[in-house]
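Two records follow; treat each independently.
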Amino acid sequence: MKMVSMKAVSAIFIAGVLIVPFSKQVFSQNAPKQQTNVNDEQLKSFAKVYVQVEKIRQTYEPRVKEAPGPDEGKQIQQEAQSKFQEVLTKEGLSEENYTQIIEMARADDSLRKKVLQMIVEERNKS
């Protein structure tokens, strides 16, 4: 049973769901790589942020879709972005750090497995 849930999480991760939601940042291949490795503490922070971002997305996406007009939708998106920033700050990460960990995990199978396991553990705490 645990293998099935890990496979499902892996599929979601690989499918590209693990992105910086509500982020204005656009991935650029020309962007300099500031960090090439990451420690366990940063990965734990990343997992906490990721789980919180899922919750933020689940809360705000329906509200944006149901917004009566574009101005209201934009305001809801800004509120969600603010929540995202609060979570990042609380865990000591920047959008850039968060994005770098995503990119490193996409490129490194063993890191991806480690991150996925940490995300599963963090979800189980909630």
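The next record belongs to a different protein.
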Amino acid sequence: MVQLTCNNLTLGYDGKTAVAGLNFSINSGDYLCIVGENGSGKSTLMKALLHLHSPLEGSINMENGPQPGGIGYLPQQTAVQMDFPASVWEIVLSGCLNRCGLRPFYNRKEKQLANENMEKMGISHLSGRCYRELSGGQQQRVLLARALCAAGKMLLLDEPVSGLDPKVTAEMYERIRKLNEEGITIIMISHDIGAAVKYASHILHIGNPHFFGTRDEYLGSDTGKAFSSRDGGRKP
């Protein structure tokens, strides 16, 4: 089932085009990696998918429209976020905020969901800890649990392993892979082409020209071959 479609999408700021002519569609359960040069418009596209940025032209169509509990988002970590003075429990539970509607409190179902996602990410024992006291890998697992509380069917991940050491990076990729196997659609921005071609079912390469297709199609394309070789020639 088609979950998201972008038609002739043009994005930019103040009337200036950042990326133009994007056409792709995502089915339920896909794992899409968005790759491309720095400044190519990857993060701008992510903001548009989150309805935080309006297209200059074209359209973004989602199954049943944007729904509370439909999309979870894991942003890039910033220094301010890493020093956030809240408990792990408070941060994870805040992912349920859109589910509350006008209700000024979390109900039992939302608290149960937060507990389940903390357990899934292996951070239940950190519940009472202050977020800023955690390691980078632990913080990312907290934010992923929070995103899962918001997500019903789709996760948007912006460089989820940025700044992590190789061991923790591998563990994070495995957690994301398992979530995808459980039926959650993954859309991930990555500078790691090796991980993209190892885990993704589809690749969107934003560049000149754009490319959208399966992982195998990307590896066989001129765009994929050129970009992979510049990234060190890593193979899946």
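Discussion point: The radius of gyration is 18 Å. How would you locate this feature using only the token line?
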